[in-house]
Amino acid sequence: MKKVLVVNSNPKPNEISFGLRLGEHYLASLQAAADVQIERVNLYEENIPLIDGSVLDGWGKAAAGETLSEQQLQTMGRMNEILEQFIAADVVIFITPMWNLSYPPLLKAYIDNVIIAGRTFKYTAEGPQGLLNGKKVVHIEARGGFYSEGPAQAMRFTDSYLSAVMAFIGITEYENVVVEGMNAVPDRAEALLEEAKQRAEASVKRMFAQV
Ligand SMILES: Cc1cc2nc3c(=O)[nH]c(=O)nc-3n(C[C@H](O)[C@H](O)[C@H](O)COP(=O)(O)O)c2cc1C
Question: Residue 50 annotated as binding?
Fold first, then answer.
C-alpha cells in the first residue's frame, strides 16, 4: 500500500473550487486504480511555521550546540512533524489555485518546511543532491486564464518553480494536471473542468500503472 499525502493550499470549500473538484476526481481515480492510503494536510487549517528571525536564530543555535528558547523548540518540533510526514509519503499531491501568477503564500511556507539540508537534500563536492528519489509528485492546478499555450505561457512560474524545487530534493517523477481558462471563458468553465478530469484519469494511468 502506497502512502499518498494531499497538500491542499486552497482555503475554499471543495464545491466552489475548480482545483479541489479536480483534485477529488484525481483521488477517486487513483483509489480505483491502486492500493493507497490517503492523508490530507489543509494548509489553511494547520499551523505551518514561517521561516522568521526566531527560526533562523534557532537553526544557528542548534548548529552551534546552544540552548533554544521554549518557543523555538516548539516551532522546530512542529516543523519537524511537517517534514517527517512529507518524507513518509510515497506520493505527494499538491492542489493549488493560481493567485497573482503564483500560488497561495502558505504553500511557499510549507515548501520551506520540507527543503531541509541533511534530510531532503545534501551538499556534496559536486553540488547539492536530492535525497528523496523514488517518490512521485502530482501538481493539480486551477488557473483563471490560459497559460498552457499562447503569450501567457512565459508566466507559468507556479509549475516551473514547483517542479524545480521537487527535482532539487530528488523527486523527478512529476506531473502537472491543470484546469484553466474558467475566468477567460466562464460559460465553458464546467466543460473545461470535464476535459481536465479526462487528463487527470490519463495521469493516474501513467503515474500509477504499477503501484
Ligand atoms: C487572489 C486571486 C488572484 C488570482 N490571480 C490570478 C492570476 O494571476 N491568473 C489567473 O489566471 N487567474 C487568477 N485568479 C483566478 C483563479 O486562478 C481562478 O479563479 C481559479 O479557478 C482558482 O482556483 P479554484 O477555483 O480552485 O479556487 C486569481 C484569483 C484570486 C482569488
Answer: no
Separation of CA 135 and ligand 1 centre (Å): 29
CB burial readout 193-205, b (16+ within 10 A) else e: beebbebbbebbe
Tell me if 155 is assigned to a ligand binding site.
Answer: no
Q: For residue 88, what is its C-alpha cell?
A: 513518509
Tens-digit pLDDT profile for the chain (211 aa)? 999 999 999 999 999 999 999 999 999 999 999 999 999 999 999 999 999 999 999 999 999 999 999 999 999 999 999 999 999 999 999 999 999 999 999 999 999 999 999 999 999 999 999 999 999 999 999 999 999 998 899 999 999 999 999 999 999 999 999 999 999 999 999 999 999 999 999 999 999 875 5
Residue ID of nearest Cα to ligand 1 atom 28: 99
